[in-house]
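Both lines are quoted verbatim for reference:

——
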Amino acid sequence: MGLSSTLRCLLFFLGTCGICSGFLQENCTDYQLQFERVFSVPGDVAMLHSTLVSPDVFNFTSTPYNITWYDSKTGQEINNQAGRILVQGETLWFLRVELEDHGEYVTILRTPSQCYMQATKLVVDAPVVGDCGRPRKGYQTLTKGATDVLSCPLSDHINKLESYSISSSVQWYRGCELIEDGKGKYTYWDMIKLKIDNVDFQNNGSYTCTLTFTLGGVTGSMSETIDAWVREVYSLVPQVHEPGNQSIKAQIGSNYSQRCLVFVPCVGKPMVDIMWLVRNDFVMTSNPADRIYVSEYREWSQDVSPKGVWFERLLMFSELREEDLHVNYTCRVYSYRGLPEGYFTLLPEDPNIILPIGLLLGSMTVLFINSVIIYYLFKVDIVLWFRGAFPVLYPNKDLDGKQFDAYVAYPQPCADGFSEKVEEFALHTLPQVLEKACGYKLFIAGRDCLPGEAIVDSVEENLRASRRVLLLYTASTFISKRHTSSTSSNNNNISKSSENNQGKTTDDSSMNYESDKDVYSYTRQPFECVAAMHRALLEGSLKVVLVELEEISPAQLALFPESVRQLRKRQGAVCWWKNLRKRQRSGTCIRRREDEEKGGQDTQLSPSISPSSRFWKEMRYHLPVRGKRVVFPEKTALLNL
């Protein structure tokens, strides 16, 4: 039978015999033998501590009590023995342990109404010869490649001594050799811990921590031995990669999720737990029906250096509310290596101004493009309307020193290129619309010249007195009869004649006044045409408006003087033949293919004298503006000069 069975039999026997000796006479609540044993060796200090003073047993803060220790072998009460035994309440100290002290010791705690009993066992082992450690050893592991620690099991003894205000010291030994603090890779840390840097397999072995102190006038010590073994399976401090302690902008009313991404450097499976905290309360639910919930864990291994395991857990909002803003949301990792954490804060999202700005710029672009297209298509109508609506914005032309709004130039009778249809248009159609209907003042060469007046002087004087020149022409205006007959004698081969004339006009491309004289001598152009071109192209002092009375083919155009062709290419011509066909196009005249095949000779000059027709609008567009704004007298005087 074991010692405890013998004790129970002894108690039963003595109780039945009515023996009243020591603690055996009391009927106490028995808490049996403590599971924890106290191990010691001869010569060391041993501390036995009762756990009866606990709120789980009685209310020791308000109920008076006293404690008595008994030796179960003799049944006698244990009292202080100088240099040998010290009783301090629920703690029994053996200041110098002997082999005979091995056994169980009973604590009886008495209150005015209750009695409690508990036994504590002291195990005294003889030391092993040649072993500096203790026969009873604990086991702890060290992680290879990491900085790890060994913890001395005497922390309860140190705390008890500190409660007595007794100082103590701890020293560590590896085998029989003293470990010096701070030497090599060893460091004393937090009094009861030994820190080992860069652990490797050479750190396997036995480590003994010895606690030295003075109690009851006796300087003593107690020791514990740890068998440490190094393993490659390890788990280091977790690293929180997300969230990164930042502020994040989110839109109220939207759903939102933020992950907690954790990396644990380890070999093997680490023991960690990841929790989300909102206002210091754990989010435990994973039910999507809740507005704020967390996802299940997701983990994956990383086999490249550094080796470890990634963990991910999401915090999700099914709908963000105003109350969710300006709050810290913390992801905390629980591990025996520490409690690292990261947090994020939700802020209201900035107003989205990109979309309105984009719409505004897009609308302005579309409006601008449409305006350009509309202006291109209806430029003449827009300009004429603006002139009529705001005449005050334009200066009064009557004060600019000019006498005529336009000088009308066309081939005169007896000159090459003369045409009765052109003369009819110049003397009747133009005055009927521009002068009578629109109020312009024209100088027409065949109508307004004074009898006997020198032609050259008249042209120069009236050109200077005119604001515009209307140059009326047809296909035959700039082609002499001699050239025409030559063309007819060659089976009407206009192309060949054109090539020959091109050879002549190539030398006229310099576009100066002398070249126009050469052309005049060849084609017998009217003098006013040459003078007008000189002023328009070289001086820039006079604007020439080309009035094309019939359609011109490319072959015919090639026979025109270089100056006329350049002016026509630059500013286009007002085409009377388009008005006859009612084609609503502006700018440079372009022949239709079927008209080119007919050679442009089928055009009829039937007049159309409605000022609202396209042709007359273009004519009014090119003619001076009839403004009402008064110019300064100084400017008028200069113009008169």
